[in-house]
Write a structure and sequence with these properties.
Length: 135
């Protein structure tokens, strides 16, 4: 059983976030906590000058609302939205919160994943805690 679980949530098609949350709840020790993390990719600096701050604030608000909808009946899960590079930010958040397990959904790898590496693969390779991958 794990006491501090991080579940990265992606809004892409084919990602089974509800399955990852179900597994996290099954592996959670009594009195433990689950954090659902969504990482908003940073806007590149060359494009940030063209993006209105109000638009960014509204987009972030929409993401927070979408994450709440995605959590659905998982009322004991704490949602968290951050900005950064997904693979690196997931690892940083796991370390800063003292996570002892990351439950991450993954898709079946395509050709591009063999050259670039997927987020799940990066998390598995570099995490300092246990990682449970859902396919």
């Amino acid at each position: 059983m794990y006491s501090n679980i991080l579940v990265p949530i992606a809004f892409e098609e084919g990602r089974d976030s509800s399955g990852a949350l179900d597994i996290a709840e099954a592996l959670l020790a009594p009195g433990g906590s689950i954090t659902a993390l969504h990482v908003i990719e940073e806007v590149p600096s060359y494009a940030s000058t063209y993006v209105d701050e109000a638009m960014m604030t509204e987009a972030r608000k929409s993401v927070v609302e979408a994450l709440a909808v995605k959590l659905g009946s998982h009322s004991t899960v704490t949602p968290k939205v951050v900005t950064g590079h997904s693979g690196r930010t997931i690892l940083e958040e796991a370390e800063s919160m003292g996570a002892d397990l990351i439950v991450i959904a993954s898709h079946r790898p395509g050709l591009q994943d063999y050259f670039l590496g997927s987020t799940a693969a990066r998390v598995v390779r570099h995490a300092k805690c246990c990682v449970h991958v859902i396919r």
